[in-house]
Amino acid sequence: MEPHLQHRASSFGGGVDAYAARPGYPDEAARWCLPPGARDVVDVAAGTGKLTAALLRAGVRVRAVEPDDAMRAALERDLPGVPAVRGTAEATGLPDACADAVTVGQAWHWFDAPRAAAELARVLRPGGRLAVLWNTEEPEAGTWVEAYRDLLHRDDPMAYDHVREPALGARFSPPEHATFPWVRSVTRAEVRLLAASRSYVLTMPPERREALLDEIDALWGTHPDLVGRDDAPLRYTTRCWRAVRLPAPPAAR
Predict the structure, then answer these.
(1) Against a cut of 0.85, is the pTM above it?
(2) Using a CB cutoff of 8 Å and minimum separation of 24, what contacts does 57-60 make?
(3) What's phi and psi for 186, nearest 5 deg?
(4) Nearest-angstrom CA–CA distance, 175 and 93
(5) pLDDT tens digits for 170-187?
(6) Given this model, what pLDDT does residue 37 score?
(7) Superfamily covering domain 3-138+159-183+230-244
(8) 29: nearest Cα among 160, 134, 130, 152
């Protein structure tokens, strides 16, 4: 990974408090990611447990893998029954064939894709499923969400171009795709925290970061969708891909 991307990928521990404003995942999306009869699930790059919580509601056992100590501590605090280990998608530290499903929420773009796919295929049982999910805001033209995204990403070279079908390689079936639209209500304070949780913002120089967050905060007092409101609807689409682990090719003789 290029140094500037590594810097962004490793920045989230500095924004644990802001991460609380991040959205969770719809229960129907979590269920869609799991194979029938799934019991054991590994949530990779689990962060503070946003996707982990939805998987638990689906009735499965979850192990969380998260490299950042601060993020993992928040997960252990909020979901005390979930075993959480320090590891990465490329090196989980988990046994072979220990999971019916592996999930990745909002993180595949930070991985070394070939190494991650090989490691997650190792962790999965035969016929197990790998699922990759992203939450994206849906900015209708002229809405406050469009104004918010324009401000937040006006100088961001990554923006949302990483939300695409993941490259999983020959150990997986071609991914299936599904989308799940949903809405949540957010307050002015939550919108500021939501922006502050982005890697692009976390890695800014402090003065520039505060200036941007102040601009976003000011939307609440100027945009006609927001003036006079205590909260506002924020529309999302959860975009999911799932693929089946294929049998390993026979060893060459």
Answers:
(1) yes
(2) 57/27, 57/30, 58/27, 58/30, 58/31, 58/34, 60/34, 60/100, 60/101
(3) -130, 150
(4) 25
(5) 999 999 999 999 999 999
(6) 96
(7) Vaccinia Virus protein VP39 (3.40.50.150)
(8) 134
Spatial separation of the C-alpha atoms in residues 170 and 117, rounded to whole Å = 9
- Concatenating the DSSP letter of every residue in 1-70 gives --HHHHHHHT-GGGGHHHHTTS----HHHHHHHSPTT--EEEEET-TTTHHHHHHHHTT-EEEEE-S-HH
Using alpha carbons, select from 192, 182, 172 the residue that is nearest to residue 27.
182
What's the pLDDT at 8? 44
For the chain, which residues make up each domain, given as ranges? 3-138+159-183+230-244
Listed residue (110, 72, 106) closest to 90, CA to CA: 110
Residues of the chain with pLDDT under 70: 1-15, 157-161, 250-253
Q: What is the pLDDT of residue 253?
A: 56
Cα 82–Cα 84–Cα 88 angle in degrees, nearest 5: 140
